[in-house]
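Hi D.,

Good news: the full-assembly prediction came through. Inputs first.
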Amino acid sequence: MSEAVSALNNAYAKGAITVQEVGPQGMITLRGDLSDAAFGAAVAQVTGASVPGQRKITHAGANAVAWMSPDELLILLPYAEVGAAVSSLNAALAGTHFLAVNVSDARALFRVTGKPGPVREVIAKLAPADLSPDAFALGDIRRTRLAQVAAAFWLTQEGEANLVCFRSVARYAFDLLATSAAAGPVGFFRQG
Amino acid sequence: MSTRMATGGRLLNKGKPLRFSFNGKNFKGYEGDTLASALLANDQMLVGRSFKYHRPRGIVASGAEEPNALVGLGRDGRFEPNQRVTTTELFDGLESESQNHWPSLEFDVGVVNNYAARFLPAGFYYKTFMAPRAAWKHLFEPIVRQSAGLGKVPKDRDVDTYEHFYAFVDVLVIGGGVAGLQAAKVAATSGKKVMLIEQSAHWGGRAPVDGGEVDGKPVADWIEQTVSDLRNLPNVTLRSRCMGAGVYDHGYVLGYERLTDHAPMAAGPRHRLWRIRTGQVITATGAIERPISFAGNDIPGVMLASAVRDYLVNYGVSIGDRTVVVTNNDDAYRTAIALKQAGMIVSAILDARPTGGGALAEEARALGIRIEAGKAIAKVHGGKRVTGVSVCLHAGEGAALETIPCDAVAMSGGWSPVVHLWSHCGGKLIWDEANAMFRPDPSRPPLGADGAGYVATAGTASGAMHLADVMADAAAVAAKVAGVEADAPAVPATDEAPMMPVWLMPQGAGVKLRMKSWLDYQNDVKVSDVQLAAREGYESVEHTKRYTTLGMATDQGKLSNINGLAILSDALDQPIPMTGTTTFRPPYTPISFGAIAGAARDEIFQPLRRTPMHEWHEANGADWEPVGMWRRPFCYLRAGETTHQAVNREILQVRNSVGMLDASTLGKLIVKGPDAGKFMDLMYTNLMSTLKPGKCRYGLMCSDNGFLIDDGVVARIDEDTFLCHTTTGGADRIHAHMEEWLQTEWWDLKVYVANATEQYAQIAVVGPNARKVLEKLGGMDVSKETLPFMDWKDGTLAGMPVRVYRISFSGELSYEIAVDAGRGQELWDKIREAGAEFDIMPYGTETLHVLRAEKGFIMIGDETDGTVIPQDLGLNWAISKKKEDFIGKRAQTRSHMADPNRWKLVGLETLDGSVIPDGAYAMAEGVNANGQRNTQGRVTSTYHSPTLGKGIAMGLVLHGPDRMGEVIEFPKVDGTSVKARICDPVFYDKDGEKQNV
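Then the structure:
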């Protein structure tokens, strides 16, 4: 039996900044009352991570939980574990008002790696968000746009950013990131 | 003649000569030159022809305000018109050509307009081209287009790249002169993020040319020290060659950085558009010197006094051996002194003020320069360059007292603060009587969301005219903006005599002189034009601007506006502040289209949405059709086929055996919650809450005005969960529609919606052999008994977990199979393999359309256009009468919605079997009030049906369903018409037996 393929089959563009499509990555859209203790417990049970605050992402090993809106989270976990995780959430939250949907295949995930400042600048050329180190640090996530498409991104470490967009525009997002990286640094973020 | 001097030129690197060309002539310049200084160094004083009269024009200014010296720069993929030579840094190999001349710059035929000037008055276009009407298109417009206009449009694709950058700072200082540097220095002490941008390549503005002392050292040393200090601060960003282009609401500012204009072969983007969000803006944009309106003030060699000084000090260029300085203020004396000290001749200083100047005048006099107080220029002599001036009393009418031969005229009519950026977002101005200028009114700044001002001005931009005042203002403003304490640097005070407003020289100049006194050089507007406009009743400055074209050229009147509105005020006998200014709009100077577009070109001009099978389609003959941002195959072309043949082949294959369709683009919205049923009943016209889990139902959605906005099949997944299919174009729109109602109106409903459109690849397997194909894939029972029409089931096909919907948009036995997108291509391949024995083939959107039209199924966007309600389409069966409410219900009871005369859906079959043209209207008897033929219906879908071997159509027809069998007539564009019989819209398998097998 063959495996699921990610949108661009792990395409990459190498340079001072490397842009790579990674995945497939397990993702679950979870909507509900973020302040509810039972909701938080269900999230923790499935991911090991806590419910993040506004514009934050929490991590536990390979798993992560990202804030998407006041009533929506994005859960990240290994692709193969999504089916079981959705079932667990459905069981744990049964009787409450919530929605858990597997969106692993609806998205594409990119990794941008290089020197810390230039990595921030690759994204800051495309997204109307403040990428400066004091405004956007480890543990932060931004749900915004990348040029003309919706995207969300966070740092996994200094010099390494992850970025999620819809699968249908994966090629566009990859080309944007690769073009932005190839155009060279701006020199605005002076770290690294 | 203008020439390079042996010494001087503080910005030049004489060790690095550069070659460049102008109109094919080869010249030499140095690193550090602008194209302007390099042209002048080579005695190229004539640089262009004026817009309307084709008069010879030379360089007037030394910066962004230059109106005349625009050139076409570069060639082929790097050609760009309308480039100001004063802001173009010289590089080796630069190629430039002058504009608006024919056949050559030296000999120009259009100059005949100059002698016919009396026939080209203000408002000429409006007056002349009114009638006859046809003459505009065939006579006037072609001539005007040929003779007017500046640069040429580039013909080749731009070979350079561009980008945007989003920056967030606390304090943005625009302008890197001494005021901007001081403001940034003070603001930085707060620890806030400070960004300082400067449009030119050099810091310090014009202070190094004008001289002075700051903190006990020469200002040039202070600048160097301050720039170096700022560079070392971690919270400060400095960018030269970066112009503040526009200030917008909420602290949004556009910066236009020219990265490689001075080095076109360098790697990286040519321009970068900075999209800056800042807490506060400080504009330290300096001031622009005003010309004086005297006859012949546009002859090459007449220049702003500050520009003459700039060329001398910065570039070691003299405009001529003998210069006459004409002024109404002390500053121009600096030019005379600098020229004299450089060994040039200053023939005279004509100071319009009866009492003359202050300390600078004394200094000039001590140098032996002739100073004539109360005197003026009556007219300038010369054609393509200045040969002399006639001197007169300023208070008189221009009777010449003497003629002074000279090569250059340095004029200064005072200074106007650059208030553009302050004004872009609503900063107000006040009239400063002492300096005869508009300056920012600090009590009425542009206001932010909190009601507080977010733009402040510093230095000369505030109206401070002397170095001591400039530095004090910059320190105080920056301290206030940044919330810190700061002392002003020590600057020795200067003693300058007051300036005197001079709007026309001499003040009593007669009409002959006024007709040669230029206000707007680039658009050829003279003093007499503005006066004529006033006489003809133009009182508003905005109307006068448009009537005379004053300030409407690419320089946006940087030199001409204040002089022009002063002339207008005088003609209207009202004070200048009552006339007011025209509106200052971004950008400050023109910015490139490339910078605006940024990286959005070629592949990333626009996102293209791709399904998981997109590449397969592309490799297998897809003839693409744009559907929203997607591309869908219109059909799959085989070798030698036309699209029509391909579509017919695909249709017959589906009807006779089996075909497959990539339906992944259809929207898939998940609606879940205890109130999901209630919500669905409100969103759809049908009753959805009664749908049983495992079942599907076709549903309609209307807007709150009752119009049909989307349709699709709804599947109930479980008690709390529905999956709603939408049209391809409707996925995002309907998702937003649902969220809006949930968030703004029905926030009490416990319902969540998620857009799962892209989670699945969806493949329709359609045709009499569809079941056999699925059975070959194996894994689940797809029989009629287990999976009847309008049911769905989860299961496995070819080893893949799938959800199969037994739904049909073609009238055939049909399964739509949803699989995780990551396995879409795999399933597609398996289906093709399994279907091979039935000659299975993919079909495109056109086949989809014909199949549904044969069945009389409506298509959103064909049968609907935003004005159609479900009742028009005979879909009353899908509108619940039991429900208390749904979106659109009340609207559909309005009298016009319930009108029996609304056109209604019918089928149309042509009598001759041909295809009715798309969008054709059916004629009715008589004509309407406009003399147009009456109509009684229109075609909404029309195709050739290979299944039926004839043209079929659907249309909306007056009383259509009551007129079965009647023949109506549709005119065609070729003058003939086609007759069609009104019939049932279901052309194929009326009883639905085929889809139900």
